[in-house]
Amino acid sequence: PILYSYFRSSCSWRVRIALALKGISYDLVPVNLIKDGGQQFSAEFKALNPMQQVPALKIDGITLCQSLAIINYLEETHPNPRLLPKDPKKRAQVRMIADHIVSGIQPLQNLSVLKQVGEKKMEWAQNCITSGFQALEQILQHTAGCYCVGDEVSMADLCLVPQVANAERFKVDMGPYPTITRINKALLELEAFKITHPSRQPDTPAELRA
């Protein structure tokens, strides 16, 4: 497999965690979203992913884009350890939380949107994340065990940790979100989350390395 990734992309980080958890080795091709006006806009990369976004994963003779589609494919082809619970209710909760982050928070504060917002991008990102986290904290109080849904690491957790990293980068006060903070801390203790961290990627700038 070949993963096209950017060290700071939260969508790429989700996929890196899934690959690590499932023990799938891969080659990483960095795509710098800022350098050269954004390497994702090259003709070469557009041929790979017409949306000109990371991640993209070449695997089993196909190219997949969109992080949750990739994670679902990995789940179906490498079922252990599972990232979706067996219980249909818990499985639905995992998907709900993942969608909440992937559709309801992250796209509103990603690089392409912030470019459009301009000078007030920090304030914009903080508002988007804060409103999303207020709802998420409430949801997690009903679903969480050690992690987002019960005591097994799931697709929801793969979405949570990169989003908390975004919140920290945009200086969001995490005080009002004790459940999110607790789960994030527990997940960052796990090896798959450590080795895939943005501070430990081949394309991480020297000043941001762990």
TrEMBL record:
It is found in: Cytoplasm. Its EC number is 2.5.1.18, 5.2.1.2. CDD domains: GST_C_Zeta, GST_N_Zeta. One of its GO terms (molecular function) is maleylacetoacetate isomerase activity. Its main location: cytoplasm. Its cofactor is glutathione. Residues 1-82 form the GST N-terminal domain. It catalyses: 4-maleylacetoacetate = 4-fumarylacetoacetate; RX + glutathione = an S-substituted glutathione + a halide anion + H(+). Gene3D superfamilies: 1.20.1050.10, Glutaredoxin. Pathway: Amino-acid degradation; L-phenylalanine degradation; acetoacetate and fumarate from L-phenylalanine: step 5/6. Residues 87-206 form the GST C-terminal domain. InterPro entries: Glutathione-S-Trfase_C-like, Glutathione-S-Trfase_C_sf, Glutathione_S-Trfase, Glutathione_S-Trfase_N, GST_C, GST_Zeta, GST_Zeta_C, GST_Zeta_N. One of its GO terms (cellular component) is mitochondrion. Keywords: Cytoplasm, Isomerase, Phenylalanine catabolism, Transferase, Tyrosine catabolism. GO terms for biological process: glutathione metabolic process; L-phenylalanine catabolic process; L-tyrosine catabolic process. The keyword Transferase applies. Belongs to the GST superfamily. Zeta family. This is Maleylacetoacetate isomerase. The gene is Gstz1.
